[in-house]
């Protein structure tokens, strides 16, 4: 009996002994200021049971068996940390203490300046515009360098431009409906509250909050209680797009009564930074108020805006730069002893959001946001009526044309405001004393959007290792677009008549053709768009694999409603009133598969296949005048894949990736002013040409390497290599529309022979190597060497069509045309490779509860002014004789328009936080 009891006791106690041998391991995760880092991810290499840090920075793993373990602690915008530890059989609880994550170098310095002034020109004639990518640092060395080092020189990772990036605030997309691009100026100057995205995913990696696109997602949560309790004051001095910035931010933290407040404001101002005649005065404000009703429910109200008044700088031909230098800007002139710029962008589009946060059960969350954005974006320019073009760089005023010498051009190289006012004064009255209209005016192209959004996000954990996300979005846009008189420049009134088309009325229904300051002129129309989208994603974590899948479907409908009936007879029925509705249905899938080799090494595959509806600008070839659809406009079909090897070691962090992306059925529209010769009348006119390429196919492929090596405990070496090839893979169809010739399609132009032409707007190859030193005494210094290769000029589609070399009277090539000569004339220009050197340094101080920081960054230390950041061919009359003559001139009349890098620029910043 005793033996039986002993056996029973033995078998009973064995499991208990085994159980008590298991251990709970715990720790606290904090930042370098000692603040808890909520939602940091802790990855246990030997298990699928990864955990998320709670609000006080605490995490734990329970029931760990004796053995050797490795964990990776990571959070966006902080340097991840890897810890190894042993669990012994006699430990019931193991305390790993406080795990401190340091800020990524540079992310807290406020050195990034969003400068989109190059986008303000209307001379572009190009589907390419220089853009800056998502300016958010992450844990990845490649993305950090791309944003802060190479990004300063308009480098686009994988060749993807702003059109394919997503920035989301509380579930609401910030992409504009007209062109799909993100307008960073809507929150410019609010660096303190937009410094750290809540989620930041790269490229085609699936997001929890939206399906995303090709260029990644930055998701911002503006919940007041999520901001660190502090007051922050900052002042910056720079010579980039402005000269001075002052910024203040206050966050209360969550009070005992359940309230939280975060407010931020800034001003950016200054002139003569680098480019002549450029000045800026911009304010910004942000307010977030949260009321917490219980641990499960809170409501947050957010409002922000950035009223900006900014002068623009012009692209110029190489001839102009050679005469005037790289700082020359033709958009300004002297008036009463002050510089006056004709191209002013005045934008203010505030947005207000109400967000409801609800926790359902133990594992589910439901977040709903309604938002409303309104305001206007106005861009001014000089206009003229039966008068000479006032542009100082008009081709007939250039020395190459032969009328002026270089010295004479220099003497009148700026806008002559006095002459413009005098021309209007001389034209005030007729011979009989009756008033006459303006010869010159300043007009504004105005866009007034009213956008309503509803966004709903639901997430739940179906199991400990299985998460589900559901996102629904609805957006309604009403966009009022018109040109108005901003300044009559001393005249009585202006004429609402088309001087370039026999003085027909722009609005045939209005017999009064006199317009005054504030009145609409030339065009007026409204666009309406409704968009519905549903996205479902799921993530499952296994011991060796992590699988994420995301699907979406969306429906959109858009229409145009014209307010002016065109005075041109053939356009009257398509200019005023509501158009037919253009609708589009989209769908797509994304997937991410991660294989965990061990706690330090991973293989990651991302794949995406989806369609993308055309933007409003792509749907209508010339919405200013008519409701004509762009011929061949379709949904883009995007297929993208990448595979990466990732190492997250304590000494070496590395990512090596290969990618391939194809885009099919794209539509690219360029709008530019061009001289148009009318052979019947024997006159030369100027008109706005709308040029479209339809059915465009492109391929983006390449490899990326990014590494961060900890040479010593304080010295890191960071290197990046991006080797890509981005090119057109077919010959798309070409069509144009202008008010003189109307619509002309492929029956006139044919196809653009652009197969194998390179995508413009970014270096296709880029390399960077840098060293950064982080002192234990809270100072740091870094430098990087950057090499940029394979930058190409954007092309004019018309110059690549058979029309250019075909005699329209015989339908045969012009005499002397050969394939070799065509190739010589139409060859795409490639710019020279360039080397850039950057440096940065900073120091922080702690005085009790006060923290102070100083930082400075300098780009292009060697003052390299030869780097072309963007450029395009001018769209002109298309015929072989002119093209051949242009190619044979030492200085062409219509050389490409270029933007050059501004040379050495700096940004200094000082802040005080308490």
Automatic annotation (TrEMBL):
UniProt-listed InterPro entries: Beta-barrel_TonB_sf (IPR036942), CarboxyPept-like_regulatory (IPR008969)
Main location: membrane
Keyword Membrane among UniProt keywords: yes
Pfam family, one: CarboxypepD_reg
Cellular component terms (Gene Ontology): cell outer membrane
Entry keywords, A to Z: Cell outer membrane, Membrane, Signal
Top-level taxon: Bacteria
UniProt keyword Membrane present: yes
Transmembrane regions: none
Signal peptide: 1-21
Localization in the cell: Cell outer membrane
Name of the featured protein: TonB-dependent receptor
Organism: Chryseobacterium soli
């Amino acid at each position: 009996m005793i033996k039986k009891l002993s056996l029973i006791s033995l078998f009973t106690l064995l499991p208990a002994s085994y159980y008590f041998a298991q251990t709970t391991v715990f720790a606290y995760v904090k930042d370098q200021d000692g603040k808890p880092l909520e939602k940091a991810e802790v990855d246990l290499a030997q298990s699928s049971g990864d955990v998320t840090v709670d609000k006080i920075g605490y995490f734990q793993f329970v029931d760990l068996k004796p053995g050797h373990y490795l964990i990776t602690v990571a959070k966006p915008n902080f340097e991840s940390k890897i810890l190894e530890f042993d669990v012994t059989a006699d430990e019931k609880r193991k305390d790993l203490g406080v795990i401190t994550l340091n800020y990524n170098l540079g992310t807290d310095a406020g050195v990034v300046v969003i400068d989109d002034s190059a986008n303000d020109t209307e001379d572009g004639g190009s589907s390419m515009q220089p853009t800056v990518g998502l300016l958010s640092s992450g844990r990845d060395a490649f993305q950090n360098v791309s944003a802060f080092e190479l990004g300063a020189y308009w480098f686009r990772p994988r060749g993807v431009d702003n059109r394919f990036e997503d920035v989301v605030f509380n579930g609401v997309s910030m992409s504009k409906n007209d062109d799909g691009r993100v307008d960073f100026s809507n929150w410019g100057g609010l660096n303190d509250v937009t410094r750290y995205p809540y989620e930041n995913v790269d490229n085609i990696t699936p997001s929890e909050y939206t399906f995303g696109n090709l260029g990644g997602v930055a998701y911002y949560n503006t919940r007041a209680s999520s901001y660190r309790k502090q007051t922050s004051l900052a002042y910056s001095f720079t010579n980039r797009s402005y000269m001075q910035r002052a910024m203040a931010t206050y966050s209360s933290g969550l009070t005992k009564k359940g309230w939280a407040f975060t407010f931020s404001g800034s001003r950016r101002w200054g002139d003569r930074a680098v480019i002549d005649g450029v000045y800026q005065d911009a304010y910004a404000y942000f307010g977030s108020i949260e009321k917490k009703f219980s641990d499960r429910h809170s409501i947050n109200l957010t409002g922000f805006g950035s009223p900006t008044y900014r002068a623009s700088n012009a692209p110029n031909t190489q001839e102009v730069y050679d005469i005037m230098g790289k700082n020359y800007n033709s958009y300004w002139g002297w008036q009463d002893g002050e510089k006056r710029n004709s191209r002013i962008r005045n934008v203010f589009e505030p947005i207000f959001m109400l967000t409801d946060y609800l926790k359902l059960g133990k594992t589910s969350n439901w977040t709903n946001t309604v938002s409303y954005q309104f305001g206007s974006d106005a861009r001014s320019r000089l206009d003229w009526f039966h008068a000479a073009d006032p542009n100082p760089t008009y081709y007939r005023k250039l020395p190459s044309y032969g009328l002026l010498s270089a010295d004479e051009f220099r003497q009148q190289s700026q806008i002559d405001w006095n002459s413009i006012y005098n021309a209007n004064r001389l034209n005030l009255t007729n011979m009989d004393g009756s008033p006459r209209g303006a010869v010159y005016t300043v007009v504004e192209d105005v866009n007034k959007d009213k956008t309503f959004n509803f966004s709903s996000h639901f997430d739940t954990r179906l199991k400990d290792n299985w998460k589900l996300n559901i996102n629904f979005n609805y957006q309604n846009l009403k966009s009022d677009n018109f040109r108005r008189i901003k300044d009559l420049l001393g005249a009585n009134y202006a004429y609402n008549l088309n001087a370039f088309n026999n003085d027909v009325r722009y609005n045939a229904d209005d017999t009064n053709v006199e317009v005054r300051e504030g009145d609409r002129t030339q065009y007026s129309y409204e666009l309406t768009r409704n968009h519905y989208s549903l996205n479902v994603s799921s993530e499952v974590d296994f011991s060796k694999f992590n699988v994420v899948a995301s699907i979406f479907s969306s429906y959109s409908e858009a229409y145009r409603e014209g307010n002016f009936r065109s005075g041109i007879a053939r356009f009257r029925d398509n200019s005023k009133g509501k158009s037919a509705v253009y609708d589009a249905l989209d769908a797509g899938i994304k997937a991410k598969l991660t294989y965990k080799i061990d706690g330090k090494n991973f293989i990651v595959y991302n794949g995406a296949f989806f369609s993308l509806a055309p933007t409003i600008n792509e749907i209508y070839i010339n919405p200013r005048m008519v409701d004509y659809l762009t011929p061949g406009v379709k949904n883009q079909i995007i297929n993208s894949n990448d595979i990466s090897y990732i190492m997250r070691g304590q000494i070496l962090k590395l990512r090596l990736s290969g990618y391939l992306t194809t885009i099919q059925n794209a539509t690219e529209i360029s709008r530019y002013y061009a001289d148009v010769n009318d052979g019947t009348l024997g006159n030369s006119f100027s008109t706005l040409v709308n040029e479209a390429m339809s059915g465009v196919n492109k391929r983006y492929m390449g490899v990326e390497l990014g590494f961060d090596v900890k040479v010593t405990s304080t010295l890191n070496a960071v290197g990046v290599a991006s080797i890509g090839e981005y090119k057109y893979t077919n010959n798309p169809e070409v069509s144009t529309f202008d008010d003189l010739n109307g619509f002309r399609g492929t029956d006139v132009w044919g196809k653009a022979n652009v197969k194998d032409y390179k995508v413009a707007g970014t270096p296709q190859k880029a390399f960077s190597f840098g060293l950064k030193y982080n002192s234990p005494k809270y100072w740091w210094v870094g430098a990087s060497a950057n090499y940029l290769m394979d930058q190409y000029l954007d092309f004019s589609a018309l110059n690549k069509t058979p029309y250019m070399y075909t005699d329209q009277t015989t339908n045969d090539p012009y005499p002397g045309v050969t394939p070799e000569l065509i190739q010589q004339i139409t060859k795409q220009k490639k710019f020279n490779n360039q080397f850039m050197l950057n440096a940065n340094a900073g120091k922080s101080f702690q005085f009790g509860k006060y923290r102070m920081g100083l930082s400075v960054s300098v780009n292009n230390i060697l003052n390299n002014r030869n780097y072309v950041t963007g450029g395009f061919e001018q769209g002109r009359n298309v015929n072989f004789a002119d093209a051949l003559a242009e190619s044979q001139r030492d200085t062409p009349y219509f050389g490409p328009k270029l933007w050059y890098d501004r040379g050495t620029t700096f940004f200094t910043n000082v802040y005080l936080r308490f």
